[in-house]
Amino acid sequence: MCLETRGGNSCCPSVLPGEFESVHILQVHTRYRLAGGEDAVVATEAELLRRNGHRLEAFAADNPPGPAAAGYLALSAWNPLAAADFRRRLESVRPDVVHFHNTWFALSPSVVVAASRLGFPTVLTLHNYRLTCANAQLLRDGVPCRLCVEGSAWNGLRYRCYRGTLASAAAALTVDLHRRWRTWSRHVDVFVVLTEFAKRIMVAAGLPSDRIVVKPNFVEDPGPRTLPAEESSVLLFVGRLSEEKGILTLLEAWRLAHSDSFRLKVIGDGPLAGLRRQPPWGVTFTGRLTRRQVWEHMLASRALLFPSEWYEGQPMAVTEAMAAGLPVLGSDLGGVAELVGRIGSGWLVQQATAAAWADAFVRLENGADIARASGAARLEFEQRFDSVSGLANLEGVYRLAAEIRAAHGASGATR
Q: Which of 110, 117, 119, 315 could cross-link 410 (Cys pair, CB 3.0–4.6 Å)?
């Protein structure tokens, strides 16, 4: 199942609304300690819906730091306190639809079940692989891993995939219990994934394919380029400074390439922020910037380098680069390969090695190729990722959730 966008394929046009009346949405999200792309998506979707006449209220939680986190982790598989609090909010607000984003770990799946049992249409956006993987990334020891997709969720504990033994046990228990109880398939009306790749993973993990909608995230238009991409010598990395994002591989590739043609600008923060203390020649670290500041750099750069080493969903940096007419040189993995490989908006690097990335820099030297990729990237944004498509897709998902809930009744237990 997918949604029709203005430039995309029409495989389920009945999902899309015509004149769509105002919808009352309760948006549910557990915020991350270090805000990232998922938090940004939640905020921009809320802003878009409100701006277009829909009524949106938020039910948000935060995972506590330090020793207090242990108590919440102990309830991560089922938190009756969170469920009771959420039921009270539901009965007070009475929304038309409940849209869940992240329930890990302070809220727990109990809040999804609470909404379903009270008869509200439910939507769950799967920004990552948390429903089938303890660390949500399908990544183990720096290498993509699918052991838990069709195998035992307890592999997550066996390999201590999530922040040590205790946290891995809590995460593995949550995956295993709700897989056995069929919580998600019984109590979620519509699952939203960002790419066809993610849909294949989640179907293999046991979710019902007929209720999975592929709905890409949208981004706002950053405006016209301030410098044609082919005239710039600046290459960008935008993202969390962590191993799975490939920053170490990228910097080693930069050292191997010894390029005098380009400069590399690294935007972001994270556990490897110490790298900025001794940057290689030609590399500048900016730290974390505002979205507007990131856009300004994108609109004046030559290409985005995206060397991520895990199965990304739909990275916001890649989509924002397309909006800015910025070609992408990215890893041939997961959603990145699907995004970049569609219509020539960039190039893919087959291996996650410094040598492969160093060799790939030559693809960025031809100005005519850069100009063509820049135009293709912008066209892809206009056809699939702008706010008009984003609004239509969200409204279509909500209509579909209401139809499915009405067809199956309030409890969802017969699914």
A: 119
Helices (H), 244-308: 247-257, 291-298
**Residue 83: CB partners within 8 Å, gap ≥ 6?**
108, 110, 111, 113, 114
Interior angle at CA 403, CA 400 and CA 408, nearest 5: 125
* Secondary structure (3-state) at 185: helix
Q: 287 and 377 share a domain?
A: yes
pLDDT of residue 412: 53
If asked whether residues 248 and 361 sit together in one domain, one would say: yes
308 with 168, same domain: the answer is: no
Q: What is the mean pLDDT of each run of 10 residues along the chain (415 residues)?
A: 42 41 96 84 97 97 90 96 98 98 97 98 97 97 95 97 96 98 98 97 98 97 98 97 96 94 96 95 96 97 97 93 98 92 87 96 97 96 96 97 88 52
- Tokens for 331, please give them: 């890893």
Q: In terms of domains, do 321 and 205 share one?
A: no
Distance, CA of 95 to CA of 57 (rounded, Å): 9
Pair (179, 44) in one structural domain: yes
Give the integer Cα–Cα distance in Å for 169 and 181: 18
How far apart are alpha carbons 231 and 299 in whole angstroms? 12
Contact 282, 264 (CB under 8 A): yes
- The answer to whether the beta carbons of residues 303 and 235 sit under 8 Å apart is yes
> What pLDDT score does 205 carry?
97
> Measuring CA to CA, which residue among 381, 194, 384, 389 is closest to residue 295?
381
- Amino acid type, 378: R
Q: What is the pLDDT of residue 179?
A: 97
Q: Can you name the residues that pair with 284 across neighbouring β-strands?
A: 265
Tell me the per-residue pLDDT of 144-156, one tens digit each, with 9 for 90 and over: 999 999 999 999 9
Give the domain CATH number at 144. 3.40.50.2000
Please state the pTM of the whole predicted model.
Answer: 0.91
Same domain? For 114 and 190 the reply is yes
